Amino acid sequence: MAHRSWCAEVAGAEASNERLEFLGDAVLGWVVADLAFRQFADLPEGKLTDLRKSVVNASALAETAKGLDIGSYLMLGRGEDAAGGRSKPSILSDAFEAVLGAIYVDAGSEAAYAFVERVIGANLLHAVLELDRLDYKTMLQEIAVRQFDAAPVYILSEDGPDHAKLFSATALIAGQIHGQGQGRSKKLAEQAAAAQACLSLTRAAGLDSPV
Fold it and tell me: Is 25 designated active site?
């Protein structure tokens, strides 16, 4: 949590979080690339690169850091704090990477992977929707009527504090679960569940993936 501005003002302070940020950046790139590669088997290399960039950038990471309330725990110099450093995207995104680096050092690669998957993994499906502008709920509606003569039904639940809600959705067709997903809004959660259901149903039918 120690920003370089704090270290410059506090006598005898240990090193800032910049080395951990360097490590966390590398770990983050690896985990997101692995998640994207495994979850979207039909995406070409160029799309995978675009997908990774859409969730691994200062703006996106800053939003994730805000959801985790990292800004409240930052150790900033008086000037930086007074200048609104706790809400600056560059400082928040760097701090998020430093936290990830610390998790990797303290608990190992499996814990670091699980952390990234939990806080960023749900954003990947949303990012795919933005990349291709696909409406998976509409697509699933068409598949469900064609294959089951029934419309999808979504069951929603939510978890977490008000400032960092995480919604979960389950897509059912004719009473059977075909997809599940999460997102920072009900709409994103339903789209994620619909996307998974579309993938499952098209592959089961031996058709090309919609993603």
Answer: yes
